[in-house]
Write a structure and sequence with these properties.
alpha/beta, Rossmann fold, 2 domains, six-stranded parallel beta sheet, 12 strands, elongated
């Protein structure tokens, strides 16, 4: 099977899901290519589209929340959205790609390429089988106006929401969000720490701003510093691709040898499996990765929109905790997660709702569609 996986760099989760599917495709003997469709115009265009989103979230998450609400409001109108119209301009370039490259199935881990392919269908152009792979625990705006052969849903619990938005029930498949196998079937905590050169006897807390380095990380660091010194705790701060944040934190945290500041890392599965507690934004992928690894999880600073929904989904099912006030509630929440009973209960809930095998389920679905 020849699979094309289309993604956009508006946050690292879409790309992470795409590569998780590609990994599963390869493991099952298929060929898969991951591509940002805007790269058919040029790499500068692909970076511009993703970069605009990332900068907006880094500078003003609340502004993104307003735009998300506008999208949510627009979906009530009986006309196609501007998102559909703009992405329709990619139709000719994708048509040419399909003419030149054998493609049995196209998977979209972002709504934009799904809009492009829907536009092509509506214009009578040839399109392979199309699968939309959701990367958040909600039915995101504009899902109702795309036309796909299947919709990979993160959970059966979201079925009613998808149907309410007009997605045909017989096309909804509950695969789970794809994450790399290393999160659920990787090395032990001790082996992960050895591979990363971490102290086997310390307690490690990861503080992550996601791929964008967003969220109130500085406030969280100042708060966490109070609980590092008396006990043998260490903090690893992940800044993602936010170079300015990384440089700033390297300077402000230089005198504290219990804090390690890192940029983006290809060793995320190792860090997740090595830590005792994960603190970060409730991105769809990072949340799923933590649950697949069975790591106690604490959410802070959700970006309004999808991440708010992700947070609600996980907290309501006991798979994570969240705090509104970092300064006043973060440390008490950490102490709660440090109790053996609370950590064990959270892990049981994670195992109940998250399998970590979403990638394989997505590939099985594609095999049945192509057959």
């Amino acid at each position: 099977m020849e699979a094309l996986i289309l993604t956009c760099s508006t946050g690292g989760g879409h790309n992470a899901a795409a590569y998780a599917v590609a990994e599963a495709m390869t493991q099952r003997g298929h060929n898969a290519k991951v591509m940002d469709p805007y790269s058919l115009i040029g790499e500068r265009m692909a970076k511009a589209v993703g970069g605009t989103y990332v900068r907006m979230v880094q500078i003003s998450p609340s502004l993104f929340g307003i735009i998300y609400k506008l999208g949510d409001t627009y979906r009530r109108l009986p006309i196609k959205s501007p998102v559909y119209v703009v992405n329709g301009r990619m139709a000719k370039r994708l048509e040419r790609y399909f003419e030149e490259n054998k493609t049995d199935v196209v998977l979209c881990t972002h709504i934009f390429p799904a809009e492009m392919l829907t536009y092509m269908k509506n214009k009578g152009l040839r399109v392979p089988k199309v699968v939309f792979v959701a990367t958040d625990y909600t039915c995101v705006p504009f899902t109702e106006e795309i036309d796909c052969d299947a919709y990979c849903s993160p959970s059966r619990d979201l079925n009613d929401e998808y149907i309410k938005r007009g997605v045909p029930e017989d096309r909804i498949v509950h695969t789970g969000i794809p994450v790399k196998r290393a999160f659920s079937e990787g090395v032990s905590k001790a082996e992960a720490r050895k591979a990363l050169g971490l102290d086997p006897n310390s307690e490690y807390i990861i503080l992550s701003g996601g791929s964008m380095g967003a969220g109130k990380l500085r406030t969280a660091i100042r708060t966490l510093e109070r609980c590092l010194e008396p006990e043998d705790k260490r903090l690893i701060v992940l800044c993602g691709n936010n170079g300015g944040l990384y440089s700033s934190l390297c300077g402000s945290c230089a005198q504290n040898d219990r804090i390690t500041v890192l940029r983006s890392t290809s060793d995320m599965p190792l860090y997740i499996r090595a830590c005792d507690i994960f603190i970060g934004k409730p991105g769809g992928l990072s949340s799923t990765e933590c649950a697949a690894a069975g790591v106690p999880t604490l959410f802070i600073s959700p970006i309004p929109g999808c991440e708010t929904k992700n947070c609600e989904f996980f907290v309501n099912r006991g798979m994570a905790l969240t705090v509104r006030s970092i300064r006043h509630r973060l440390i008490p929440a950490i102490k709660r997660l440090e109790t053996e009973s609370a950590a064990a209960k959270m892990k049981r809930q994670q195992e109940k709702y998250i399998s970590g095998r979403g990638g394989e389920e997505v590939v099985k679905l594609c095999e049945s569609l192509v057959k």
